[in-house]
Amino acid sequence: MPDSLPPSPVRRRLRQGRDRLATVLVTAGGIGVIAALLAIGVFLAVEVVPLFWSGGDTQTVSPRALWSPLQAEDDLAGYRWDPTATLGTEEPARVSLLPLAWGTLEAAAWALLIAVPLALGAAAHSALFMSPRLRSRLKPTLELMEALPGVVIGFVAGLVLAPWLERHLADGLAMLVLLVPGLLLAGALWSRLPPRLQQALPLGWAGLWLLPWLLLVLAVALWLSPWLEAWAFGGDLRQWLEVRLGLDLAVRNAIIVGMAMGFAVMPSVYSLAEDALSGVPRSLSEGAQALGASRWQTLWRVVLPAASPGVFAAVMIGAGRAVGETMIVLMASGNAALMTWNPLDGLRSLAATIAIELPEAGPDGLHYRLLLLAALLLFLFTFLVNTLAELVRTRLTRRYRRLGGVA
Amino acid sequence: MSAVLRHCLAPWLLMAMLVAPQTQAEPVAGTLGTVGSDTMSGLMLRWGEALTRQHPGIRLQLQASGSASAPPALVAGTTRLGPMSRPMNEAERRAFIERHGYPPRELAVARDALVVVVHRHNPLESLGRRELDAIFSDSRYCGAHEGIHRWQQLGLDWPVGSIRLHGRNAASGTHGLFRQVALCDGYFRPEINEHPGSAAVVAAVTLDPRAMGYAGLNHLTPGVKALARRDADGTRHYPDAEAVRSGDYALSRDLYLYLNLPPGEPLPDAERAFLDLVLSATGQAVVEELGFVALPEARRLRQRRELGLGDAGR
């Protein structure tokens, strides 16, 4: 065997050279990525500068216009995004970025509100309670959902889901309201079942045998919804919302965006959280159960804290994606640059604005630079979210390392 | 066969192609590149097809990225034909003159209009100038006293509730024209849903009896109803071919073709063949087929004469 012999000096030098080359290449690659990231930030910042300070006769936008509301009589006042109408004219610029930033965060918040409970619930169930066979099928399927292009999700949400929900608002609400009691009822019924039937319906397979029950609950909700609407809302939920709460319903609204984007964010949150939860050493949960903890207590007091760095990272990655997502918001939101708390109003995000307006904003114009400023803002948002995620994650990892937890 | 050889040969071949028809009565050949309006892309495509059918040697190359892309391409000389759905503004015209020393040649090639649409079951028939402004703007520069937010304010019992507004995105020519003409240069209300295309506006209005939107005339479908425009004296102008052609329907406009043509020089053959087709009866029939409106006959013939195309124009 040539390897067992002491290598000749030539060969040794060759190998050293190869090692050194590999090191250089890997280092260069790493530095290159960081440099590219910095370069993007620097490029955006440099391109944005002439928006505020210019040497010559070109016009600028005052920073005040970006953050403060317009001072005007009644209807014209407020935060407005209407760059094509006012840039380059004598009129006060209507280019406040606040409604766009608001829309971005609002959409991301609704998406997380919908995705995080579902994804974490699914992850906890499949990591701890589900039968391994079902889990080995379910996890790849859920991860496949991640491959769905945002355009497709946005299309379905904007053109199918939104009009349906607008016409059947009460049905949707009834389904949502009856789902939780329906599931609790299923749990209560199951615990009363005779042991033989319980064995036929094992908990590990609940994901499968609950499906018919879920369909039944939804059917009952659909059947009941006209009565519920008549009883609680005087027969017309939309009118009730408008008269009682002063809420106006837009067909494409923040809730629709949240549902669509929640659907898009869910698989990645689920996948990462599931990895973290199932990576918690068996010895920990078995120890807890041996000491008399119930499964529920084990989950809350032992497994979840031990896996918290990974779970937190999963949620933050979901948040990063929700903030930067473009096509879903563009197609499902209606793109009205509003700043309201009403979740039934439309919204407009930074990313969607850039996608819509950049192709027709002439290069080097004020509008173009404004959009680059929006891009810079978006870049900062995602950068902050990810940095925060990484900081908290390393902190938590350090704290729980002694438990034998995993990142 | 090396690329070098091809590169050396190409200009000569091209020259030969362009020169040949002038010396003999050969069929015209060549490639016409155009850059401009996406509203007119369907129109240009169909004209290009018809042109290739008449002169198998000519091909029309289309780049439709918006009206705003035509002037820079004309100035830089990358194209000699720029379709635009709005007239060139002063800055664009000045840039062209600065570069070439003469103004661009402007040709009106079709009539188009913006229509205000509602759901097909909506009882509304017409809107006045001020009403339209009060619905879509929050500036009300056309003179209305207060904004119109609900259908009841238009005197209707049904549909009930607020008017849901749909329109085009801010970068489009349609958005700009509507702002100028219908809002008296005012400002759109922020609640308007902005869609990336006229077809999407029409689709949204088709689904919702409480919706109102504006779109290009050629996007009308049976699912929506186009509203008439009411004059101060109460006459209604529906956006039909006659009213759009004469301009009685106030939201109508010309569609243009801008041409880089030094004064005094004759049209190059390929462009001559193309314009001959566009301003012929066949070319105008294509316009009508695609849902736009043909030019008034007198105007078509006058433009033919100005270009030296002869009066035939079948």
TrEMBL record, chain A:
<feature type="transmembrane region" description="Helical">
    <location>
        <begin position="21"/>
        <end position="46"/>
    </location>
</feature>
<dbReference type="InterPro" id="IPR035906">
    <property type="entry name" value="MetI-like_sf"/>
</dbReference>
<protein>
    <submittedName>
        <fullName>Phosphate transport system permease protein</fullName>
    </submittedName>
</protein>
<dbReference type="InterPro" id="IPR000515">
    <property type="entry name" value="MetI-like"/>
</dbReference>
<feature type="transmembrane region" description="Helical">
    <location>
        <begin position="203"/>
        <end position="224"/>
    </location>
</feature>
<feature type="transmembrane region" description="Helical">
    <location>
        <begin position="254"/>
        <end position="273"/>
    </location>
</feature>
<dbReference type="GO" id="GO:0055085">
    <property type="term" value="P:transmembrane transport"/>
</dbReference>
<feature type="transmembrane region" description="Helical">
    <location>
        <begin position="302"/>
        <end position="323"/>
    </location>
</feature>
<dbReference type="Pfam" id="PF00528">
    <property type="entry name" value="BPD_transp_1"/>
</dbReference>
<comment type="similarity">
    <text>Belongs to the binding-protein-dependent transport system permease family.</text>
</comment>
<keyword id="KW-0813">Transport</keyword>
<feature type="transmembrane region" description="Helical">
    <location>
        <begin position="107"/>
        <end position="130"/>
    </location>
</feature>
<feature type="transmembrane region" description="Helical">
    <location>
        <begin position="370"/>
        <end position="392"/>
    </location>
</feature>
<keyword id="KW-0472">Membrane</keyword>
<keyword id="KW-0812">Transmembrane</keyword>
<feature type="domain" description="ABC transmembrane type-1">
    <location>
        <begin position="101"/>
        <end position="389"/>
    </location>
</feature>
<feature type="transmembrane region" description="Helical">
    <location>
        <begin position="142"/>
        <end position="161"/>
    </location>
</feature>
<feature type="transmembrane region" description="Helical">
    <location>
        <begin position="173"/>
        <end position="191"/>
    </location>
</feature>
<keyword id="KW-1133">Transmembrane helix</keyword>
<dbReference type="GO" id="GO:0005886">
    <property type="term" value="C:plasma membrane"/>
</dbReference>
Automatic annotation (TrEMBL), chain B:
<feature type="signal peptide">
    <location>
        <begin position="1"/>
        <end position="25"/>
    </location>
</feature>
<dbReference type="Pfam" id="PF12849">
    <property type="entry name" value="PBP_like_2"/>
</dbReference>
<keyword id="KW-0732">Signal</keyword>
<dbReference type="InterPro" id="IPR024370">
    <property type="entry name" value="PBP_domain"/>
</dbReference>
<feature type="domain" description="PBP">
    <location>
        <begin position="22"/>
        <end position="281"/>
    </location>
</feature>
<dbReference type="InterPro" id="IPR050811">
    <property type="entry name" value="Phosphate_ABC_transporter"/>
</dbReference>
<protein>
    <submittedName>
        <fullName>Phosphate transport system substrate-binding protein</fullName>
    </submittedName>
</protein>
